[in-house]
Design brief:
Layout: E1 5-7, H1 13-24, E2 29-30, E3 35-38, H2 42-48, E4 59-67, E5 83-92, E6 98-105, E7 111-113, E8 125-127, H3 146-149, E9 165-169, E10 175-179, E11 182-186, E12 193-201
Parallel strand pairs: 7-8
Antiparallel strand pairs: 1-10, 2-3, 3-4, 4-12, 5-10, 5-12, 6-9, 6-11
Helix pairs in contact: 1-2
The protein binds fe (ii) ion (FE2).
């Protein structure tokens, strides 16, 4: 599995404010737990050409997302979605949250673990239960560490059994790049909401 690439100060303030302006002037649609806006427009792609860590020729999917509750652990891999880039844009009224990228991955199409509920997702199939109840690779077969659970305490500790990984600060200016097969989740949020741009590379 390739390492996570966390690049600080990859995105200039002017690129961030331009992207926020584009988001604010777009019509958004609401999915079950987050607001999404397509970023797959010539306008956005043109702005992204000014970001050194983004290869606009590899982009398969690009959308803005804003949400106020932590997102479930999930993977994003699909036939034409091989790698994720998360670009934090704005954190509303509170401390920056973290994106937890786990060391474990799933050799299958994207899945979202909803723990107990039977939420259905149109793209990433929602499945009940915990990641460790499924065929994830490199499970630690141990409880999550105390250090990592500090970020994930919005769910009971045993929900995260078998997982290890690192927290990456959701800080505007930085980018987080990782294999789409890797499990990832939002940390406990101490802010009202966060806005980011998510990009997926096709190869
Ligand atoms: Fe994701």
């Amino acid at each position: 599995m390739s390492p996570v690439i966390y690049t600080k100060n990859a995105v200039s303030d002017s690129v961030i404010s331009t992207l926020i302006e584009i988001y604010n002037s777009s019509k958004d649609y609401q999915t079950k737990s987050m607001k999404k806006v397509s970023g797959q427009t010539d306008e956005v792609l043109e702005v992204l050409k000014g970001v050194s860590t983004i290869d606009t020729n590899r982009i398969q999917i690009c959308h803005f997302y804003k949400h106020s509750t932590p997102y479930y652990p999930h993977t994003d891999y699909h036939f034409l979605e091989k790698e994720n880039i998360v670009m934090p844009l704005q954190v509303f009224n509170g401390a920056n949250p973290y994106l937890i990228v786990f060391d474990q991955w799933l050799d299958d199409d994207g899945k979202t673990w909803t723990f107990e509920s039977n939420t259905t997702f149109s793209h990433n199939t929602g499945i009940s239960g915990r990641p460790c109840d499924h065929n994830i690779k490199k499970s630690t077969n141990k409880e999550i560490t105390k250090a990592l659970y500090r970020y994930l305490s919005h769910y009971p500790k045993d929900y995260w059994f078998g997982l290890s990984g690192d927290p990456y600060e959701f800080k505007p200016g930085n980018t987080i790049q990782f294999d789409s097969k890797r499990l990832h989740a939002t940390s406990r949020m101490h802010c009202e909401a966060k806005l980011g741009l998510t990009i997926r590379y096709k190869r």
